[in-house]
């Protein structure tokens, strides 16, 4: 039994109508799925940035601890040089010990300067960290709202979309059967 061209066109028109309804329902979602995906990307980037900044702050703190330890070492050396000054036998020994004390003092000043530099860097990083954290919190609030909105819209339209998808599948099968050429029996 051959299906008429008119019947094929009617089946094709019905399939197109179903596709149009599905497109309309998907349009209700609008840009929301893309907005959610963009927010997810933003959040991932901000989280990575936070981790990076926290790593930098930890490194500065480690440098400060190392400099404080070196200051203690130099202070111990100065105390040792002071003890040695009590046992000096000649002018040359005095000058050598005095020079060592001076060098240790300069090293302490240098370490203290570095500590102040690191502390300034930490302060700047903490400001960036706070602003990044605020941005991250804002994005998380936005994505929670958008996800809820998206879930509501999907839930409202889920039944209709499922019904239309089944109708579409049936219409497509019917159309495929109608347009497939009839082959003569194999002899």
Concise structural overview:
The chain has 3 helices and no strands. The protein has helices at residues 5-29, 32-85, 91-179.
Overview of the molecule:
The protein has 187 residues and is mainly alpha-helical. The protein has a single domain, classed as Helix Hairpins. The protein is 90% helix and 0% strand. α1 packs antiparallel against α3 and α2 packs antiparallel against α3. The longest helix is centred in the C-terminal third of the chain and has 89 residues. The chain starts with a helix and ends in an 8-residue tail after the last helix.
Keywords:
single chain, mainly alpha, Helix Hairpins
Secondary structure elements and their pairing?
Blueprint: H1 5-29, H2 32-85, H3 91-179
Helix count, per DSSP?
Answer: 3
| CATH topology group | Helix Hairpins
Total strand segments: 0
- The amount of beta strand, in percent, is under 5%
The structural class is mainly alpha
């Amino acid at each position: 039994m051959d299906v008429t061209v008119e019947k094929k066109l009617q089946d094709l028109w019905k399939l197109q109508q179903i596709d149009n309804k599905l497109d309309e329902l998907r349009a209700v979602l609008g840009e929301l799925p893309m907005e959610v995906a963009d927010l997810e990307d933003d959040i991932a980037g901000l989280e990575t940035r936070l981790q990076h900044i926290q790593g930098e702050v930890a490194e500065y703190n480690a440098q400060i601890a190392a400099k404080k330890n070196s200051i203690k070492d130099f202070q111990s050396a100065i105390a040792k040089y002071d003890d040695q000054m009590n046992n000096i036998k000649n002018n040359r020994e005095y000058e050598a010990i005095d020079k060592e004390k001076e060098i240790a003092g300069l090293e302490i000043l240098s370490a203290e300067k570095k500590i102040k530099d690191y502390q300034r860097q930490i302060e700047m990083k903490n400001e960036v960290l706070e602003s990044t954290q605020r941005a991250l919190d804002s994005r998380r609030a936005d994505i929670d709202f958008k996800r809820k909105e998206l879930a509501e819209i999907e839930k409202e339209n889920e039944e209709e979309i499922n019904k239309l998808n089944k109708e579409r599948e049936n219409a497509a099968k019917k159309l495929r059967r109608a347009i497939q050429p009839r082959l003569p029996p194999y002899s």
